[in-house]
Amino acid sequence: MRLQNAALGAAGLAAFLALGEAVPRLGLVKEEYFPPTSRIASAFADELSDGAFWTALGDTLAGWALGLAIAVSAGIVIGVIVSVVPYLREATASTIEFLRPIPSVALIPLAVLLYGSELRSVLLLVVYASFWQVLIQTLYGVQDVDPVAEETARSYGLGTWARIRHVLWPTALPYVMTGVRLAAAVALILAITGELVIGAPGLGARIAVAQNSQAVPEMYALIVVTGLLGLLINVGARTVERRSLAWHQSVRGEVAV
Q1: HSE-up (13 A, CA, CB side) for residue 109
Q2: C-beta of residue 192 within 8 angstroms of C-beta of residue 226
Q3: Percentage of residues in the chain with pLDDT exceeding 70?
Q4: How far apart are CA 221 and CA 39, in angstroms?
Q5: Which of 34, 71, 99, 138 yields a CA-CA distance of 20 to 30 A from 10?
């Protein structure tokens, strides 16, 4: 089954690349706006041999990883505290619902005013966007704790931290891992968006330079790199999720299938 899925995926990718080669060659779109796949592939190879490309890639990954780490840590800690402390969930519900829908890109002017085109501007956007993914999932996970299990733990004399470790955390972990996986993708999107708009060092700034200099094949090659990066991050996040939840029924059922 896996080989069949891999073969179908490869066939679909080959068809997509062939379409990308044929459309501009047939004159359906202008090559100066959408170059053939072969030209993009050549530009991609040139990028791989350029040291500045690897520096930009490192800057993007640094902003992504640092922002994601801050967002995940803050989301888990605040989510658990808000859920455990009596009446704190009700007191913060309206504030969370007000702040959560604000698009992170709307904070770009604030980020520029505070930090200019530095890495901290990108971190502000990444942390803000990713934080809510983890926080909301943590709140849902804690809310899903079985009251009977909670009361049983209390009756056995387990303290607050022991109940969090043995009752709350195992229940909330599947939700938390879902939040982390979503946050990883959102963090990459905002990191590249911030670099593209603000001009902070990274792949986004390199895409903007390629666009402004009319280096269209290089621009598309860099866009392909961001897509591959997103794919690798998603695969990595799913792998970590499956390993962290190897004991959970959802993952065990997925493996069995």
Answers
A1: 2
A2: yes
A3: 95
A4: 9
A5: 34
How many H-runs (helices) and E-runs (strands) does the chain carry?
Answer: 12, 0
Q: Are 184 and 68 in contact (CB under 8 A)?
A: yes
CB 130 within 8 A of CB 72: yes
DSSP string for residues in 182-248: HHHHHHHHHHHHHHHHH--SSHHHHHHHHHHTT-HHHHHHHHHHHHHHHHHHHHHHHHHHHHHTTTS
**Spatial distance between the Cα atoms of 33 and 39, rounded to a whole number of angstroms:** 12
Other Cβ atoms less than 10 A from the Cβ of 7: the count is 10
Extract the residue ranges of the chain whose pLDDT is less than 50: 255-257
For tokens 């931290």, the residue is 161
Q: What is the pTM of this model?
A: 0.87
Pick from 25, 138, 140: which is nearest to 80 by CA? Answer: 138
pLDDT score at 250: 62
